[in-house]
């Protein structure tokens, strides 16, 4: 209990300190572009009311969820296939190296050409960016299945789908989650970028609108909201990961090689 | 006790080809293990014991020769065979509870109902004295307990032949003695055929009804020794018997000779 309290304190301490510093340093300032934090916070409550949440934040989250899920599922499926078949890997690897080197935002204009400017485009952009870290990490994870474990499974007739479910996927779990974590922050970035190009709602759209209308405190409040959103998503992710990979963290804590 | 041959290894040969050179691991292995027999294989380190085990277990195709299990040629891992390996830490699935680890192979046997599965797992865990550990993860247990989980998994599988590859090489002496007695006990209770591979001479003599001594690699069977010790064995009294010392010395000589003269 005391341990948990201390950890919570450590988590909040630095953000709180930075906010206080920002608050103190900006108070009474008259810069147009860097308004006082007090003003930003004041506009925050005003701007992000229920209407805006429903109109801008929810659609954004919907796109992120759809794109991220599509990217993750594709990445894991393709990664397992490539990771467990040497020949597929030899064929696919050069192409993968090329594709992962292309920065996802430059795909936005290209994707707009065939997916239009609606939700589909944004979801495709998010999916096409998030798929890579998941895919490459899954390949590594699926390749690294322990040889003794693999032979044990074989000797007990655990093959095919059972092998995939009971051996390959859980064994690659830690790497898959590492990829999913990278993909999450990437997904958030792509969500905002895709909404800046051609959109009529969404968080990225709102922030650009505020900026163009010189509603600077409102713009800052949007950035603040994005940061909070990223933090919340990361926290949820960590909770899920802790749960799913409980065995992995326990195994590592037990200090035994695996 | 001696029945028909359960395991029949004929002219087993295995060479590995790689990087322009050919390594002959097994030259010519021929031996049988009778149904219900506990047979120990002992040899100098690096004598291809693991290759042999993989060939017998259907995990590796021999270069020539064959393995027959109850008259049928082994071409892949046979359902009537279970394996216990040395590396207990790497042969149990760390993401599953002890219970799930023992149950997993049974899920592959389609004709087993849920009730029957549960009964088999409970029985196997009880047999290795881990009835209360089902909910734990393997890595929460000591090395000896983990190896007992691996044994329970093999037991629940109800194999006719149990292959054990240096299963106790990585545990401390005290635990090792306990596990040896456990294997003897389970073997006598359940009447399985056991092929026990080890590099430990005392262990081979203490456990087996028969000891096969292997040569250094490329491997052949160097000698076959019947262990004429009483079936009731005890860590203290059996090991103190003159017959035990005599057998042990005999195996030791053979292994030394195998190391110094190479093959044959």
Automatic annotation (TrEMBL), chain A:
GO cellular component: plasma membrane
Membrane topology reported for the UniProt record: Multi-pass membrane protein
Keyword Transport: yes
Keyword Cell membrane: yes
GO BP term (any one): transmembrane transport
Transmembrane segments: 65-83, 183-207, 219-240
Subcellular location: Cell membrane
Family of this protein: Belongs to the binding-protein-dependent transport system permease family.
SUPFAM superfamilies: MetI-like
This protein's name: ABC transporter permease subunit
Domain of life: Bacteria
Keywords carried by this UniProt record: Cell membrane, Membrane, Transmembrane, Transmembrane helix, Transport
Lineage: Bacteria, Bacillati, Actinomycetota, Actinomycetes, Kitasatosporales
Residue intervals of the ABC transmembrane type-1 domain: 57-241
């Amino acid at each position: 209990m005391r341990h948990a309290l201390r950890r919570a304190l450590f988590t909040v301490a630095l953000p709180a300190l930075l906010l206080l510093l920002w608050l103190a340093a900006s108070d009474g300032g008259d810069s147009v572009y860097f308004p006082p934090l007090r003003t930003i916070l004041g506009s925050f409550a005003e701007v992000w009311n229920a209407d805006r949440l429903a109109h801008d934040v929810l659609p954004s989250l919907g796109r992120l969820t759809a794109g991220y899920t599509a990217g993750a599922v594709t990445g894991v499926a393709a990664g397992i296939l490539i990771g467990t078949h040497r020949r597929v890997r030899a064929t696919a690897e050069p192409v993968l190296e090329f594709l992962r080197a292309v920065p996802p935002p430059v795909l936005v204009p290209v994707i707009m050409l065939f997916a239009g400017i609606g939700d589909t485009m944004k979801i495709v952009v998010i999916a096409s960016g998030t798929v890579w870290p998941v895919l490459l990490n899954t390949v590594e994870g699926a390749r690294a299945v322990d040889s003794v474990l693999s032979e044990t499974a074989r000797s007990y007739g655990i093959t095919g789908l059972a092998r995939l479910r009971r051996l390959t996927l859980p064994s690659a779990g830690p790497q898959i989650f590492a990829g999913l974590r990278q993909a999450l922050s990437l997904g958030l970035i792509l969500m905002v970028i895709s909404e800046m190009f051609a959109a009529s709602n969404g968080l990225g759209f709102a922030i650009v609108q505020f900026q163009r209308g010189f509603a600077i405190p409102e713009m800052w409040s949007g950035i603040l909201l994005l940061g909070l959103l990223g933090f919340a998503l990361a926290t949820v992710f960590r909770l899920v990961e802790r749960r799913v990979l409980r065995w992995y963290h326990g195994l590592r804590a037990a200090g035994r090689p695996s | 006790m001696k029945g028909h041959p359960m395991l029949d290894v004929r002219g087993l040969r295995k060479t590995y080809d790689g990087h322009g050179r050919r390594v002959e691991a097994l030259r010519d292995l021929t031996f049988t293990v009778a149904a219900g027999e506990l047979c120990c294989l002992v040899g100098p380190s690096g004598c291809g014991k693991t290759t042999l085990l993989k060939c017998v277990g259907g995990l590796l195709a021999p270069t020539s020769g064959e393995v027959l299990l109850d008259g049928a040629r082994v071409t892949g891992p046979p359902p009537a065979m279970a394996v216990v390996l040395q590396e207990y830490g790497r042969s149990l699935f760390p993401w599953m509870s002890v219970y799930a680890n023992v149950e997993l192979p049974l899920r592959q046997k389609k004709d087993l109902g849920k009730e029957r599965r549960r009964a088999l797992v409970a029985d196997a865990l009880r047999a290795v004295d881990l009835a209360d550990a089902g909910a734990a993860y393997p890595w929460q247990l000591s090395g000896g307990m983990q190896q007992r989980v691996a044994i329970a998994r093999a037991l629940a599988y109800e194999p006719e032949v149990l292959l054990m590859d240096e299963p106790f090489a990585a545990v401390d002496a005290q635990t090792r003695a306990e596990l040896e007695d456990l294997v003897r006990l389970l073997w006598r209770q359940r009447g399985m055929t056991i092929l026990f591979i080890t590099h430990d001479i005392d262990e081979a003599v203490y456990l087996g009804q028969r000891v096969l001594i292997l040569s250094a690699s490329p491997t052949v069977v160097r000698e076959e020794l019947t262990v004429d010790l009483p079936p009731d064995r005890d860590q203290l009294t059996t090991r103190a018997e003159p017959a035990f010392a005599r057998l042990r010395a005999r195996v030791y000589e053979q292994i030394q000779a195998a190391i110094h003269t190479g093959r044959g």
